[in-house]
Amino acid sequence: MKTTSEVVSEVGIPRQKLYYLEQKAFVKPETERRGEKTFRFYPDREVEKIRAIWKYLRQGFRYRAAYERALEELKQPKLL
Fold first, then answer.
1. What is the pLDDT of residue 67?
2. What is the model's pLDDT at position 21?
3. Chain centroid to CA 35
4. Cβ distance 36 to 73 under 8 Å?
5. N or C end of the chain, less CB within 10 A?
6. What is the pTM of this model?
7. Low-confidence residues of the chain, pLDDT below 70?
8. Cα separation of 25 and 79, whole Å?
9. C-alpha count within 13 angstroms, C-beta hemisphere, residue 34
């Protein structure tokens, strides 16, 4: 599991775009409340989805198309 800061740093996606993906329900972080604050944590499968969506967004796809292409890509078995 990774924090928002770790995902932003590792994937290179701007924080605002990551939050937009959450708002549109393309990605779903787990949340944990600690006192007054709520923290987001991203499981590995969500980080991979974010990485794939960001790749397609950088190629010029709109959000919905980038999301759909990312899902298709993640369904494909990886060749070693």
1. 97
2. 97
3. 26
4. no
5. C
6. 0.89
7. 79-80
8. 29
9. 4
Q: What is the residue whose two structure tokens read 């990886």?
A: 78
DSSP characters for the chain? -EEHHHHHHHH---HHHHHHHHHTTSS--EEEEETTEEEEEE-HHHHHHHHHHHHHHHTT--HHHHHHHHHHHHHSPPP-
Q: What is the pLDDT of residues 63-80, one digit of tens each?
A: 999 999 999 999 987 766
Distance CA 25, CA 78 (A): 25
**65 Cβ contact partners less than 8 Å away, ≥ 6 residues apart:** 56
All structural domains of the chain with their residue ranges: 2-75
Answer yes or no: CATH 1.10.287.110 is held by domain 2-75: no
- Strand 37-42 versus strand 2-3 pairing type: antiparallel
